[in-house]
Design brief:
The protein is an alpha/beta fold. Helices cover 60% and strands 9% of the residues. It has a five-stranded mixed beta sheet, sandwiched between helices.
């Protein structure tokens, strides 16, 4: 009964008779339609039916009978009726259960003369049309004290009123459309965003255009739709002016203006009773107005949460940020494959797809546009289009326009700093930004400026090994290049070259200290910038800087098998043939070491002699690379032992240096020399001292080198202890990616395992060595490895290949350390094969030696080792 309390106050006597007649109408109707009366509620009744169709027909009949009953004594009377379907508990004729609570809340939401049904009740109907009745969906609503929203329907039919005010005690639940495509590669970001939305009231997903901030927000709204009583709404301010922001929001939410109030105040009053997730997008152009509105909404609506997306923060107190970056390589390729399949084209996430996604900066929007064009272009053709700057669709153009708008909106003085970042060829850190891009600012001011560029998504964060790095996305870099004047570019380039030369000097020192691992990683990350600084110093005709860059990191290039760095010294010698000797002398020393690395022994000896002569005649700094090249090239050429004075000079120089790194080298070299000469006590003494010094230095490469020397010293007398030393040395070398030491130790360990264990134990180490040295192009060590491979496959019974490998290695005519004594068994094998096959074998060997090259020798050795290893350890 609607309004019963007021009627009891106004018509206390008449209500006694009215209530009796009202209840009797209801009871009679329930019985007529097969229902069961459960109990009275004071101003109404609760009844149950065996089927929803019975309940609905009874409800319609109740409304008709009540309308036909004379209640004029109390000014008329109407009842609201609700029908719900659910389970209850029957306890001695009394019903209990949550379904009764839902029905009561549903009934309270209706109006007099109205019949409302819950979604479960409506879905169970089977004969509604036959009864001349129909349903009208009133929307999905949140009922008071009911956790899950319900779809609510109104019953319409003959003699039933159909127009009513909005439901009472119910709030509409707003649903954003579910995303039509899967969200790939964002699992961690999605989990973080959902967590933030669950705990904070303002969350902004920040990222450059095309990175997928809106797509992530849509997924969050879909996943969190049941966490907000009134659901989620989207406010898009794409074409809205600053003075119309509140009006646009009110229109999107369906809020009318109340008399005597502004649009904004009417909106805030309406939001006060709402529990909504409000997704705010495309607001950068009207940033200040949207910021102020968001702040006001959060103050007025304690149960609402704002999820904003954009290229910069909203700048509201309490704002939580989630920075969205490009996809990683695997996720980007997976996205391309998935979106290409939607066009009916099957591609695989191979190297060409990964390269294409890298060219697209891992930006989801660009990747999706490119993938959508795979029905028209192949992956190779898409590469070509990007090379010509003519990518498919308008994505790149739109992104460039957005970047230009963001640059134009920068505070005064910041655009030159941003444009200067275009000089970096890779990642950079705060120090690099301060020195190159903001030389007039203090470090603190430069850091603040860099933070503002990150906030505006013009500079991208790139966390690497715990060190905060920064980089430009390709579209940003291209936009910057187009806006930079030649004069500004020249000034920035000079600062950049100066910064890099100082950086590599510091890194070279750090490589010899306890922070070697960190320095190695920094150099690997910054190598694109080192390369760019070398090229740009040549473009500026700055030979001094070019020489510094090409020679300072010679031991980094040597230890890490970086042949590209070595090639720079040879480039300088070719490009500056008439430069003064004192300027190019250190370049010749590094070039000599580079040539030995590639087995170009004549060039190595020539450049080393020229460097050492210039050092003597011009009183230049001590040239360690030239001496190393002279010693190794002399030995490997077969010309005999290197001049003893070179060893002595090298040792004296290293002893004179303060760094323990050099002292370890001297001790280890003395230990190895003593081992070769059979001086066991001296070898052990120097090896132990080298290890002690290495542990004091805390330099991983020094420790690896010292342990290798100590292992060599004890190998004959204690092979088990030697294997432990070798294994520890190998672990230390690998940790800092010292490939030269890794190869050296791995070779010794493979030889030891072959002799004290079994030949097949050496196979995995040799296979790893073949891969490492082939990639590096270090032929001297590669041929020594092939010789050991020949010995191992001979041990395993592969006599013909063993002798063939030995023949190929001998044909190279490199002087290498002596083979282990028991390898002389190969001499007997070769003699037997020659005796069995005579001149035909000798001729065949000559032909094969002439035909085969390094690649074919490596392939044959690898195939044999893999076969023997598979036979020894069959796949399970």
């Amino acid at each position: 009964m609607e309004g019963s309390t007021r009627r009891w106050e106004e018509f206390p006597d008449a209500m006694l008779d009215v209530v009796v007649r009202h209840d009797q109408v209801l009871i009679d109707t329930i019985e007529d339609h097969g229902g069961t009366m459960i109990n009275y509620t004071g101003d109404g009744v609760v009844a149950s039916f065996d089927h929803t169709d019975q309940a609905v027909v009874a409800a319609a009949d109740m409304q008709r009978r009540l309308a036909a009953t004379d209640f004029s004594s109390v000014g008329g009377l109407r009842a609201r009726i609700a029908v719900h379907l659910g389970d209850v508990v029957d306890r001695d004729g009394e019903y209990f259960g949550w379904a009764l609570n839902v029905a009561a809340r549903l009934n309270a939401a209706g109006h007099g003369g109205q019949v409302v049904l819950s979604g479960p009740a409506a879905e169970s109907l089977t004969a509604l049309a036959a009864a001349g009745l129909s349903l009208q969906l009133l929307g999905e609503q949140r009922l008071r004290d009911v956790a899950q929203p319900l779809a609510i329907y109104q019953l319409n039919g003959p003699d039933l009123p159909s127009t009513f005010p909005p439901l009472r005690s119910a709030s509409p639940v707003r649903r954003l459309p579910a995303p039509t495509k899967s969200l790939l590669g964002r699992d961690d970001d999605l989990a973080r965003a959902r967590h933030l939305v669950g705990q904070d009231r303002l969350v902004t997903v920040v990222g450059p255009r095309g990175v997928g901030t809106s797509r992530l927000a849509a997924e969050v709204a879909h996943r969190e739709r049941n966490a907000f009583a009134n659901g989620a709404v989207r406010l898009d301010f794409t074409a809205v002016e600053s003075d119309a922001v509140a009006a646009a929001a009110a229109t999107a939410l369906g809020v009318g203006t109340r008399a005597g109030q502004s649009v904004e105040q009417s909106l805030l009053d309406w939001l006060a009773d709402q529990a909504l997730l409000i997704v705010v997008e495309h607001w950068e152009r009207v940033h200040e107005s949207v910021r102020d509105l968001a702040r006001a909404m959060l103050d007025a609506a304690p149960h609402c949460t704002v999820l904003a997306t954009g290229s910069r923060p909203l700048d509201v107190d309490g704002e939580s940020l989630l920075r969205l970056g490009p996809l990683d390589a695997a996720s980007a390729a997976a996205l391309f494959v998935d979106r290409a399949s939607a066009t009916g084209v099957t591609v695989t996430a191979d190297a060409s797809v990964r390269s294409l996604c890298d060219r697209l900066d891992g930006m989801p929007l660009s990747i999706e546009v490119a993938a959508a064009n795979t029905s028209t272009y192949s992956v190779a053709e898409l590469h070509d289009l990007l090379d010509r700057g003519d990518g498919p669709g308008s994505t790149t153009r739109a992104m460039v326009e957005a970047i230009s708008i963001a640059i134009d909106a920068l505070p005064p003085g910041m655009e030159p700093m941003l444009l200067a970042t275009g000089v970096f060829a890779g990642r950079f850190d705060r120090g690099g930004f301060a020195r190159v891009c903001a030389p007039e600012l203090t470090p603190a001011e430069a850091a603040e400026a860099l933070g503002e560029l990150v906030n505006r998504s013009l500079v991208h964060l790139a966390d690497s090994d715990g060190r905060l790095q920064f980089r430009l996305l390709g579209t940003v870099a291209e936009t910057i290049r187009q806006r930079t004047t030649p004069e500004a570019a020249a000034d920035t380039t000079r600062r950049f070259v100066s910064f890099v030369t100082e950086f590599i000097g510091e890194a070279a020192d750090e490589l010899r200290g306890p922070d070697e691992l960190l320095a190695q990683r920094r150099l690997t990350q910054q190598f694109p910038n080192v390369r760019a600084a070398f090229d740009r110093s040549l473009a500026l005709n700055d030979l001094d800087s070019a020489v510094t860059i090409a020679t300072t990191l010679w031991d980094y290039a040597f230890m890490r098998f970086n042949d590209e760095y070595f090639s720079w010294s040879e480039r300088l010698l070719a490009d500056y043939p008439d430069a003064p000797q004192e300027r190019l002398a250190p370049v010749r020393g590094v070039a000599a070491l580079s040539a030995w690395f590639r087995d170009e022994l004549d060039a190595s000896l020539r450049w080393a002699d020229e460097a050492l002569l210039a050092e003597e005649q011009l009183d230049l700094d001590f040239d360690l690379p030239a001496r190393l090249a002279k010693i190794n090239a002399t030995v490997y050429s077969g010309a005999g032992a290197a001049p003893p004075e070179l060893f002595a000079q090298q040792a004296d120089y290293q002893r004179s240096r303060p760094e323990r790194y050099f002292h370890v080298n001297v001790r280890t070299q003395n230990s190895i020399m003593a081992t070769w000469l059979g001086q066991t006590d001296s070898a052990l003494h120097n090896g132990l001292e080298a290890v002690r010094l290495a542990r004091e230095s805390e330099n991983p490469s020094s420790l690896a080198f010292a342990l290798w020397g100590l292992a060599s010293a004890v190998e004959v007398d204690d092979p088990v202890q030697a294997e432990t030393f070798y294994a520890n040395a190998l672990a230390a070398a690998r940790e800092v990616e010292n490939q030269w030491l890794t190869a050296l130790v791995q070779m010794s360990l493979a030889s030891l395992r072959r002799r004290v264990g079994s030949a097949v134990d050496a196979a995995p180490l040799l296979l790893g060595l073949l891969d490492l040295l082939t990639r590096a192009g270090h032929h001297s060590h590669l041929w020594a490895t092939l010789r050991l491979c020949g010995i191992v496959v001979g041990d395993l019974g592969d006599d013909v290949l063993a002798v063939q490998l030995r023949t190929w290695v001998d044909g190279v005519k490199l002087a290498m350390p002596a083979t282990p004594a028991d390898a002389s068994a190969l001499d007997a094998v070769q003699a037997r094969i020659v005796d069995d096959h005579g001149e035909a074998w000798v001729a065949r060997q000559g032909r094969l030696t002439a035909m085969w090259n390094t690649d074919s020798a490596v392939s044959a050795a690898r195939a044999a080792l893999e076969r023997h290893l598979a036979e020894a350890v069959p796949a399970s």
